[in-house]
Amino acid sequence: MSLLDAGLVLAAYLLGSVSSAIVVCRLMGLPDPRNQGSGNPGATNVLRVGGRTAAAVTLAGDMGKGLVPVAAARLLGAPETVVAATAAAAFLGHLYPVFFGFRGGKGVATLLGTLLPLSWPAGLLTPATWLLAAKLFRISSLSALIATALAPAYVWFFTRSPVLTATVAGMGVLLYWRHRDNIRRLLRGEEGRIGHKG
Question: Rounded to an integer, what is the distance from CA 90 to the centroid of its chain?
Fold first, then answer.
């Protein structure tokens, strides 16, 4: 790996470590999302504590910090392994941010952001899957889990790349791990629905 490649991966992790939810809530004078609602610094919890505008800005920020570094790696002609490592680094930065005590979000929006430059058809199909599941079930976490489970299949179908597919699958495993409490609540029928406050 060249110095440029290593720099891309490091920059991706550092950008991923910037918590959009915390920054947005501070700028908008809202409560710290880590101390409100579900306690997760992500767009769904910001929706609960701050409303649609704050949630939309948070969502855009979290997607952007996945999209920008991977797109930069693509534009700079980085090898596929480096592009994949850049995506993984941005995702890990969101989950384990160096700027916030390594306590980050669950990674849904950042994963979606990395998909667009990895494979734009997969990057469109995955959020479309989330939207369809959300419309059917009205449960954000379940929608995310369904979309994440299908994302590696989408990437493989459109790229036939073992490296990219394995990277997306690996991010999916971590996302499922971060959603383990949600999965337990889903199994008990206690998971909150989209738009529900508290």
Answer: 9
